[in-house]
Write a structure and sequence with these properties.
Elements: H1 3-34, H2 38-41, H3 43-50, H4 67-78, H5 85-94, H6 97-122, E1 125-127, E2 130-132, H7 135-143, H8 146-178, H9 188-204, H10 208-236, H11 241-254, H12 263-278, H13 286-289, H14 297-326, H15 337-348, H16 350-382, H17 386-403, H18 409-449, H19 473-477
Antiparallel strand pairs: 1-2
Helix pairs in contact: 1-6, 1-18, 3-14, 4-10, 4-14, 4-16, 5-12, 5-15, 6-11, 6-12, 6-14, 6-18, 7-8, 7-18, 8-9, 8-16, 8-17, 8-18, 9-16, 9-17, 10-14, 10-16, 14-15, 15-16, 16-17
């Protein structure tokens, strides 16, 4: 390990241990209590929100992305190598107990996800293509701190569409090369990286709507395929499920980590990998949440909360069970995607390695698209000059190309550090602004109790400054105003 990488790892561990973890825990608990356990009580509404009608403009066209499209864009970034390589790393380092802390992180983190997504909707910006927004926007409009929004935007761009997308490309190339018996020829990794970069360009140059069209097709397909593969493996090892659940519960509180042997290692690894995967609190997913056309900010807040559950309780959990039911002994386990790959191939044979390569490509490619989407929104926050967007596109495509050719260890460590910084800025910002999210939740519930489909207009929240859209009911819904409504 180089001196630089050692410093990055040390700085990242300190940042997560002493700043990120306490913030995540305290705010997750506070948001859960303050919202009245919104992430559990309003679960049915989360599913209903996926099929909510998309408001139209005066020409009858959708104002922006639909609720489901915004969900798939955020799911595209959430469901990626963190669900396969990240979970493999968490288990190899933190043992089975890390899985329990990933679940706990998702439960309380989903309340944080609700708050940040709702705020992103409240403070979203309208442009020619529809809506855009995210933490940089609610920091500027809600807190009046544009400089801090710019800092967050820069950190997000470097951390997500650049550093993390390098990891996506690396993982695709590594998975393909590992599928060759006896080792892959030297040209394979460069060819894979080039293909991924070209495919990325073909989608992102078509704009945000093309990204949404691809993700709403790709995300359900890859999720069903991977979950089906995992279910088959679990069924083949059904007798091991009970002992695995017992090991997860036991190791979560005893601290019997594979590496380190301390409860702190188990907790840190589980929370860090869980947050890296489901993104709750990072401030990344709100960039997708803001792009949805909906009639009330809470609707998309609830839909994005469901995204946290989908990522962790379904996709991450199936990876954990694939590994743990097939390999109870983790002493010599290799962290990363190799652990998942070996578990799948060992259970189903060599053909499953090829199928995993296809799944990994779908997961990682969709993540590349989702993270590109986030970065574009933040580039436009800093500058709407066309040249800025083109520079950003070149940088992202370069990162994807180079990512398939470099070692991933330094990039993993650096992305953890940058994402920790991103999380701190976002969490500090949403803490004071969360009162607006809870006021919106109260307004949503009042309208639901009145038997109405909730519609928000900015006069209903006079205490919130800097709200740009939500002018009146007709502009929000695309329909004639209802009778008897008002603030």
């Amino acid at each position: 390990m180089s001196a630089f990488e050692s410093w990055v790892v040390s700085a990242s561990d300190s940042l997560w241990t002493w700043l990120v973890l306490p913030l995540v825990a305290v705010l997750g608990l506070y948001f859960t209590g303050r919202s009245g356990l919104v992430q559990v009580r309003m679960l049915p509404q989360m599913f209903r929100g996926l099929s909510d009608r998309t408001p139209t403009d005066a020409r009858g066209h959708a104002q922006s992305l639909s609720a489901f499209q915004a969900f798939t864009v955020s799911a595209a970034s959430r469901v990626g190598i963190g669900n396969i390589a990240g979970v493999g790393t968490a288990i190899a380092v933190g043992g089975p107990g890390a899985v329990a802390w990933m679940w706990l992180m998702a439960l309380f983190g989903s309340a944080t996800g609700f708050v940040e997504a709702t705020l992103a909707q409240l403070y979203k910006h309208r442009d020619a293509a529809g809506f855009r927004g995210g933490p940089a926007y609610y920091i500027q409009r809600g807190l009046g701190r544009r400089w801090l929004g710019v800092v967050l935007a820069i950190v997000l761009i470097v951390a997500a569409p650049l550093a993390v997308n390098m990891l996506q490309s690396f993982t695709i190339a590594e998975t393909v090369t590992n599928s060759f018996d006896g080792g892959a020829p030297g040209w394979v990794a460069p060819a894979v990286a080039t293909f991924v970069a070209v495919a990325t360009a073909a989608v992102v140059l078509g704009g945000t709507h093309r990204i949404a069209l691809v993700t709403e097709t790709l995300v359900p397909a890859m999720a069903v395929l991977y979950l089906a593969l995992g279910v088959v493996i679990v069924v083949l090892h059904l007798d091991a499920v009970g002992p695995v659940l017992a090991a997860i519960a036991h190791d979560a509180v005893t601290g019997e980590a594979v590496a380190g042997g301390a409860i702190g290692t188990v907790i840190l690894t589980g929370v860090q990998r869980g947050m890296f995967s489901n993104e709750a609190g990072f401030g990344t997913a709100p960039n997708a949440a803001a792009s949805a056309a909906t009639t009330h900010p809470v609707k998309q807040g609830l839909v994005q909360t469901l995204g946290v559950y989908f990522d962790t309780f379904f996709v991450c959990s199936i990876t954990a069970f694939i590994i743990l039911v097939t390999r109870p002994d983790l002493e010599s386990a290799e962290p990363g995607i190799a652990l998942t790959h070996d578990a799948i191939v060992g259970s189903l044979g060599g053909w499953a390695g090829i199928l995993l390569s296809v799944i990994v490509f779908m997961l990682a490619f969709s993540t590349i698209l989702g993270l590109y989407f986030y970065g574009e929104s933040n580039v436009e926050f800093m500058s709407e000059h066309p040249a800025a967007l083109w520079v950003y596109r070149v940088l992202v495509l370069g990162a994807v190309l180079v990512g398939g050719l470099v070692t991933a260890s330094v990039v993993w460590s650096l992305s953890d550090l940058l994402l920790g910084v991103l999380a701190i800025i976002n969490l500090v910002a949403i803490a004071p602004l969360s009162r607006h999210a809870f006021a919106l939740l109260k307004d949503f519930r009042v309208q639901r109790r009145e038997g109405r489909d909730p519609v928000f207009t900015r006069d209903r929240l006079p205490g919130a400054r800097g709200v740009e859209v939500w002018e009146d009911e007709q502009s929000v819904t695309g329909l004639p105003p209802r009778s008897g409504t008002g603030g």
